[in-house]
Design brief:
Layout lengths: L10 H13 L13 H6 L6 H4 L15 E6 L9 E5 L5 E3 L7 H4 L2 H19 L10
Length: about 140
């Protein structure tokens, strides 16, 4: 909280965030036998994806949109309406929060340059990829 210069009035939110996250990740405590506190209490494996989107006190507004190609529905991954995307890293990811590019953005020269850069980078990465990792569907 000090590292991010969080105001004292927001420390309660950070404490709640920390407690929830620590309850859902495994820690080296002998009594837990490699399980999370949440698993020990409920018997269910926790889904921490909602904690991975941001870190504490992520600055807003910030540019959080990233260009990616839509690859299809990600069945049995995350919650409903989860999709496979191909980001610029060329490593498929599953996401639930996506937004289609608006028609007026598609036609702008700046977006066309970004798209061309994205396509060039991804194509180059995929061209040199010799590993085939099938997706589990």
């Amino acid at each position: 909280m000090q590292r991010t210069n969080s105001p004292l009035s927001l420390w309660g939110f950070c404490t709640q965030y920390t407690i929830e996250l620590r309850n859902q990740i495994a820690r080296p405590l002998p009594l837990l036998h490699g399980r999370t506190p949440y698993e020990v209490i409920t018997g269910n494996t926790p889904d921490i994806s909602e904690f991975l989107e941001f870190t504490w006190s992520t600055a807003f507004p910030e540019h959080t949109k990233h260009l990616a190609r839509w690859l299809g529905v990600a069945h049995k991954v995350g919650q409903v309406m989860c999709y496979w995307l191909l980001p610029i890293s060329a490593v498929p990811i599953a996401r639930t929060t996506i937004q289609e590019v608006a028609q007026h953005e598609l036609q702008s020269e700046e977006f066309q340059r970004q798209l061309e850069h994205y396509d060039n980078v991804v194509n180059e990465k995929l061209k040199h990829s010799h590993q085939y990792t099938p997706l589990q569907l």
